[in-house]
Amino acid sequence: MIKIKAINKLVENSNIILLIDTKTFKKSEYLSKEQTDAVKEAIKIDKKQLFFNTGFQHIFALFSSTPFNWETCEKLRKAGAKICDIINVNSKENVTIIAQDNKAALAVAEGLALANYQFLKYKTDKKKKINSLTEINILSDKISKKDIEHLNIAVNATYIARTLVNEPFSYLNAVQLSEEFKKIGKEAGFTVEVWNEAKIEAQKMGGILAVNKGSKIPPTFNIMTYKPKNAINKKPYVLVGKGVVYDTGGLSLKPTPMSMDYMKCDMAGSAVVAGTLYAAAKAELPLYIVGLVPATDNWIGEDSYAPGDVITMYNGTTVEVLNTDAEGRLVLADALHYAKKLDPELVCDFATLTGAAVRAIGPYASATLGTASDEVKQDIFDSSYAVFERLVEFPLWEEYADELKSEVADMTNLGKGEGGQISAAKFLQHFTNYPWMHFDIAGPAFNHAVDAYKPKGGTGVGVRLMFDFLSKKATK
Ligand code: BES
Ligand code: ZN
Ligand code: ZN
After folding, report:
1. Closest to 64 measured CA to CA, from 9, 31, 24
2. Looking at ligand 1, which atom is closest to the CA of residue 328?
3. Lower Cβ count inside 10 Å, N or C end of the chain?
4. DSSP secondary structure string, 392-414?
5. 331 lines ligand 1 (CB under 6 A)
6. What is the pLDDT of residues 11-68, one digit of tens each?
């Protein structure tokens, strides 16, 4: 695991990343005369970075100009990711960031650390492949301990979420997912209650049971609770995550290429929940937080639920299933109904819910809809910029609920194709009666190619967003 720490003295010949303010640069104690001239030349021609290899040490000069806002911080994260590659190619173990501004230093460290993630579990030659970088130092005696600690936690929590997403269904079925939650809870300090199939049946969670019908593996319903004694909120923040450990589409079968072939990612919402609870507990946030994850695969079997079936949900609503591939909303609806019991302050759900969200905005942002107050929405958007996990809000118009009207049951699970991310959210809204935000992460949860500090595969999107949002709630 990578470790970020503050140091107040530079070890000779360390590899350094020097953040240079292009507006004010004259010289630096870390650069020779020739290097200083090269830097001045580079600034003239508007270069963004320079790399010196002295044989003993690597010096990366990064050029930027103040102020450090969300846009420049993102550039620094990306620059950190680039440097991460060079460091590992050169088998270096550590690097020290030197910057005037702590916020800027933290952004470079974040990009470096997030880019250093690897998923090597199934590689037989993992020893050869493992990254050399293990230590990121920030040279500063003014940087806050809490900022460093929160950054380490956010990085680890993101790693945890990515690994959960990257684990294939051959390992990570619903039962195993619950085991992973227990391990994470034990390490971080939150409890995990797992309902088995018998309990889910006894509770009549009809959405989860219908999706699970074609499977040989039982479903689970997971309740993760973090309730420290010093919690400042009586009503919990509730996080709900789609835990479809594999989505074949069911009888409404998906095609394989660029569709079913990566549907191990369909539990990415549940990874956000577990990752955020890990972070909150590790940071000892004085907040009462509950995570809910309905988990199952969406398989094909003798007993699979079929298009045209009518099922009865946990809250008693009857649903005509017109497409078995719209399974996420069925399992989430039961969890959202359960959340009412908790009298929540706010419920945020995360789900790889619709291809429509991906078609609307691609992999660059999550589609967001919700009934929370404007103030809460503003806080969420502020966090979204702070961590650069972009959100696009869509409207919860009634017309989209009309699309879900059924001839035979209370509603169907299938809207019209257009704006499908909205009709899916309207379906979910039916099962809520509290301030609620929905995050359709189908686009950004899983990368098909490396994108700066976000690797191919699970990205962990949602974790840094929620951790930032909750951390700010904890200090309000
Ligand atoms: N898991 C998929 C959505 C998805 C798409 C996730 C792309 C990640 C990347 C979801 O269960 C699904 O299949 N949704 C259907 C719903 C439709 C039948 C109404 C879809 O979006 O096509
Ligand atoms: Zn599906
Ligand atoms: Zn799905």
Report:
1. 24
2. 11
3. C
4. EE----HHHHHTT--SSSSEES-
5. no
6. 888 999 999 999 999 999 999 999 999 999 999 999 999 999 988 899 999 998 878 8
